[in-house]
Design goal:
alpha+beta, L-fuculose-1-phosphate Aldolase, 7 helices, about 15% strand, globular, binds 1,3-dihydroxyacetonephosphate
Amino acid sequence: MAASLFSGSRRAVLVHAKKMWEAGLVVASAGNVSARIPGSGLIAITPASIPYEVMTEDQIAIVDLESGELREPGPRPSSELPTHRALYAARPDIGAVIHTHAPHVSVLAVLRQPLPPVLDEMIVYFGGTIEVARYAFTGTDQLARNAAEALGDRAGVILANHGNVCVGPDLPRAFQIALTMEATARVYVAALGIGSPVALPDDSLLSGRALYERRRI
Ligand code: 13P
């Protein structure tokens, strides 16, 4: 595959990585973003430890999903490559993965507290409670396994003492999940500070889940 065929995927990953940074979901070089390159068995993924402010399209790494090897010479891919690969392997339905350190989600991560469905829109976007993956150190294969297990068939997972990972059929929808999860966590954390959030009724959970299943394709 010629290098020019990757430029659209590299650009889309870079655009969404910068949006994530501009939205305040990460600072400096934290977090990472990847997307499948359709029909190729490859992903485009942000490089390790390069601040978004100066990150360029040619620094986006092209990686073989099966072997984890770089397809072209360039900067080292994100240290969370094991988690990205594990999620693509576990979920053939997803086309993009976004890892953030969004502030209110990170409060829940530090408390190791899941984000239950407390807002109508949440169940429709996320498919259910956002669970907390068992703790493992950043960048490890164990973290990758824990994240894939706790993600299940939903649109995101909280990483204990770390942040979250959001997934979607494509980059715009994974980014929408990342924004929505932080907005929901902000409401939930504020509600916990002054009272006891009330769970949605069962029939709303069922209706929301049915809508989630329809829109995640
Ligand atoms: P990378 O810069 O290697 O992607 O790491 C950032 C991060 O958030 C690790 O969890």
